[in-house]
Amino acid sequence: MTSVWDRVEPLLWHVEKPARYIGGEDGSFRDDKGPDAVRWLLAYPDTYEIGLPNQGLQILYGILNEREDAAAERTYAPWGDMEAAMREASVPLFSVESTRPAGEFDVLAFNLSAELTYTNVLNMIDLSRIPLHTAERGPSDTVVVAGGHCTYNPEPLAAFLDAIVLGDGEEVVGELNDVMAAWLATPAAARTRRGLHVALANTEGVYVPSLYTPRYADGVLVGYDVDAEAPATVDKRTVADLGEWPYPRAQLVPLTEVVHDRLNVEVFRGCTRGCRFCQAGMITRPVRERPKDQVLEMVRSGIERTGYDEVALTSLSTADFSGIGDVVAALCDPEQGVPEVAVSLPSLRVDAFTVATAASIQQVRRTGLTFAPEGGTWRMRRVINKLISDDDLYAAVDAAFSQGWRRIKLYFLIGLPTERDEDVVAIARLAANCVERGRAHHSKASVTASVGGFVPKANTPFQWHEMDSPSELHRKVALLRREARATRGLDIRWHDPDATGAEGIVSRGDRRIGAVIERVWRDGGTFQEWSERFELARWEAALDAEGLDLASTALRARGRDEMLPWSHLSAGLHPDFLWGDYESSLAGEGLEDCRWTPCYDCGACTTYGIEHVVAATAPPAGGSQGTGQGLDLTGPVTVELGTTHR
Q1: Hey, which CATH number is domain 5-235, 2.40.300.10, 3.40.50.300, 3.40.50.280, 3.90.1150.10?
Q2: Cβ neighbours around 241 below 10 Å, total
């Protein structure tokens, strides 16, 4: 095994945060496998402090390293100072465990969680000294694959990736390892890249772009010519029983500060709330719960091993976990044998937050509270199917302020379908009313309203809808700011509308956007998700150079019968269901959580053989989608509320 440590170590004296590049975490792996093991380099295309806590990457890291025929190490995107130093010293991208060059691994596997990291993907492939384009790679070159939520429209990266995994990775990563092992065992003279691509394409849940050629007519995608040895449609992989995969068994504990620096235990996967803007909620269906005894054991063993004093019980809507009350009660009971620990519930719904909950969680310490009503009016929230009433929000806000919180955060989206100016202005008014409720308890109570721009994503009911231009989003932000000026204690913050426009280009575009991404990268446009590094002008210039524009690639509406870039990739949802839900949204009709109703036949349960179960507990009165579980948190718990998934 080659190590470039002797060339890396001198660079660390001259860069910001050298701990990003040295590994050494508790729980990290040292490769002692035999020469026939498949070597994986798991890559996160952002800085170490952003990528280290990523649970998808850590799960695959644990699964692969438990196998005798696989070994996995990690790498992250080097910040600009380190990249410059590496290029000047001719140091390739390397793993943090052993400083082994990326090009010596058999597989370079990216986790794609945010579209604006795509230029970093290209940069990391280039730093690895792997040919940038799949078509240029030969039998001896590292295989480049990707997975994650963004892969439900992978076409913008199709030219750069050998294979793309749709859905859950726990099972398929082992199958990919088997394919790679067989290919690597083939005599070099008989080994071909096409042979590998065909083998990968015949692995369920794996999309190989080189076997699908897009066809265009008058500048519009009209279909794909599919290789005879590839499936016409690629279906996502779904792990039916989450209890069979209690990973990560050994969560990494960093030596330096990272985001979400705590123990993380996933309690369930999927969501039935049906928020129409939420790609994560749609593509991860159906709901699969982890057994509550397993959750407790993962917390106990994780706390004892890592020394963390906080655990986050993670999911898309943690209060919907059927065992949440018992789990929290057990974690707060010293007799249960769990070390003293604060519990965070990052996705607790507004309509599950009560005075009793607030009173119990502040016994340990008060963390920041974020509620996510998403829309400023009840009409708007019915359109997006976020069925939270104003009274639900006010009750949660009153509960928090009455128990000592002095600052809360609200999250909203603008640019939503059917949105009017009065819906936008109502965001400021709703937030101002929350300030007023806070001031009834504390004279310095304050509210921060954080506003993001809506992007219609693949495999959601809104995938056909048009998107607001950056200039229109800027105008709406100005409306909000003007309305909020009269309210002391109200702070309006917003995501850059220009960055939202670029996100739309990448998340809604077809394969032609790959050339745009490459132009932005070659122009120095890395770390585009960081505001200080982003410039929309780069993207507009790249579009223009490719004969494209923002309106045609991102902003325009799609027709019901139009070929979408991702139409040949299935998240398990019936297109008729998505279209029907879209029509319901335009009519202002909400759709109740299917746990309280007969099955809507979205396709998720029937496709994957998981029985749809109507909950025995009745939903809360008033028409809002509460948990109906009477959540009682009576021990030392802390809560972070309203994580938004888009």
Answers
A1: 3.40.50.280
A2: 11
